[in-house]
Amino acid sequence: MENFEELVQLLIENKMTIASAESCTGGLFASKIVDVPDASKVLNASVVTYSNEAKTKYAHVNPELIEKYGAVSEEVAMAMAEGIAKETNANVGVSFSGVAGPTGGTPEKPVGTVCIGIFIDGDRHCETLHLNEAWTRVEIREASVNYMAEQLIDLLK
What we know:
Elements: H1 2-13, E1 18-22, H2 28-34, E2 43-48, H3 52-59, H4 63-69, H5 74-88, E3 92-98, E4 113-120, E5 123-130, H6 137-156
Helix pairs in contact: 1-6
């Protein structure tokens, strides 16, 4: 919670708003933001884009990106973050797409693979997390959103 309090405060100080497009985290990131007082000053919107169709419709991801790289990819995560920021007129867009398990993993993208995207006023950052595949779905989701908060704090300072 401490990281999310700091994140909300930094967004307020920087006069920025944020939006999220979440797949494997299922809205957990937005929920953590909403747990903080004054979240309404910074959170524009959050969409759970669990299906590929939702990624395309709400985050404006080109279906060809999904077809070429797969939904769990840095390319799609980056497109989700940028798409949701632009769709909601937010300064910051974040996204999560991954395999929280316990099923669904492949040798190329095992359980615990989470791609995150960050779009801040035109700047793009993305990476792939390789979390412990022995963790539970809850642990993978928690670790993903906490990591995102840490990254955003570092980028906004």
